[in-house]
Amino acid sequence: MTSTSTIARPLTRRFFTLYHEYLTPTHPPKPTRRPLSTLRKNRIPSHRALHPATSPKPQQQKTTTRHPHRPASTLSQTDVPPPKEETPSHPPTHYDLFPQTLPAGPPPASPFEIDLRILRSEFLQLQALTHPDRHQGPDRLRAEGASARINEAYKTLQSPLLRAQYLLGLQGVDVANDERMKIEDEELLLEVLEAREVIEEAEEEGDLDGLRGENESRVGDSERSLADAFGRGDVEGAKREAVRLRYWINIKESLEGWQRGKPVVLVH
After folding, report:
1. Which end of the chain is more exposed for a tag (fewer CB within 10 A), N or C?
2. How far is CA 114 from the centre of its chain?
3. Each residue of 192-214: b (16+ CB within 10 Å) or e?
4. What is the mean pLDDT of residues 177-187?
5. Phi/psi of residue 61, each to 5°?
């Protein structure tokens, strides 16, 4: 059986990585200054010192690179190599917080579906490591921030609807709050209105068994369609399906909270 300390070591390293990625500002390291005596000692004699009696020759453009012992103050513009082109960096996502469960990152690099059992296991391990009571001083504040971020990421990723809305948000599409994301499919609108009518007219729980089965099937079909759209990188298709899933989840919640005579409010 794997010991607790063996499991904790990689998770502890990941915990402190979260500090740097999410909670602490990053600054470029300050250059270390060598003593002046070291610079003078290692300084290479100039061209005139090596050849004092030679007549001046036409100057040629230098193409040499910086000598490891040559101080920066003696470098000319031709000695400095051109700056390297920086590659654009991508901000970390919720997927980066769960490297064991989601090592490939968000779709299309990984499937839309997530093994929720494995996700919860890693979540509990991370929560144990980032519990504020295990840290003191500045580390306690960082632990509180890391714990809150992990909670938010887990809540989002465990829900197919919230996960889809989050992934679309990474593409600049706000399905949850954009008022323009309304039902454009008349057939879908009719199904939603019929479902609301059945819920409102039900006299007892048993009257809703048929609708529960139908709606569960719709939720499953919608989640599979989302997986296919994200796998193909089809943002428009994923956006349309996320709107549909939002209605099916709303109906599911209405069924779970049913009370006789209680009106049904469908969130658009």
Report:
1. N
2. 15
3. beebbebbeebeeeeebeebeee
4. 67
5. -65, 125
